[in-house]
Specification:
Largest sheet: none
Shape: globular
CATH superfamily: Pheromone/general odorant binding protein domain
CATH topology: Recoverin, domain 1
Distance between the termini: 14 Å
GO biological process, one term: sensory perception of smell
Number of domains: 1
Protein name: General odorant-binding protein 83a-like isoform X2
Main location: secreted
Organism: Bombus impatiens
InterPro entries: PBP/GOBP, PBP_GOBP_sf
Number of strands: 0
Strand content: under 5%
């Protein structure tokens, strides 16, 4: 775990869903996040045929032009209803669930990446995640 890592907006969203579904409490610990989202992570790894190493590499700025990795991000956003059937990312929902302690940095990341666009859902979500990393590499944690 990187000591400087903070909760990015997607993590906050996933945490909120956990709270609503499982009655848990919101945690900003990246390891807690990974444990509670492991089922969806495993499903999306299997569906997209990417690797855990590729996903974890994005936390260090490694975003290879890999269709499997791109579709992994789409899968994660779909599992948590953060992308609609037309491929539009629901930025407003992402911003609403950011805990107050991370609101400024999370809003900055989301707002800076709202203009990312591509017709292909996999490409769009990949570009969004890459943008989020570029805006704040320290705060980015791969879903």
């Amino acid at each position: 775990m990187r000591a400087a890592a903070v909760c990015m907006s997607l993590i906050c969203l996933l945490t909120l869903q956990f709270v609503l579904v499982h009655g848990g409490t919101i945690s900003s610990d990246p390891d807690d996040f990974r444990r509670m989202t492991s089922v969806h992570r495993k499903k999306c790894i299997a569906e997209s045929k990417t690797t855990l190493e590729a996903i974890e590499g994005t936390e260090y700025g490694e975003f290879p032009e890999d269709e499997n990795l791109k579709c992994y991000f789409k899968c994660v956003l779909e599992k948590f209803n953060m992308i609609d059937k037309n491929g539009k990312i629901r930025y407003n929902i992402l911003k609403q669930v950011i805990p107050n302690v991370y609101k400024e940095i999370g809003n900055e990341m989301v707002d800076s990446c709202k203009d990312v666009d591509a017709e292909d859902k996999c490409e769009k979500t990949f570009m969004f995640m890459k943008c989020m990393y570029n805006v704040n590499p320290i705060a980015f944690i791969a879903p």
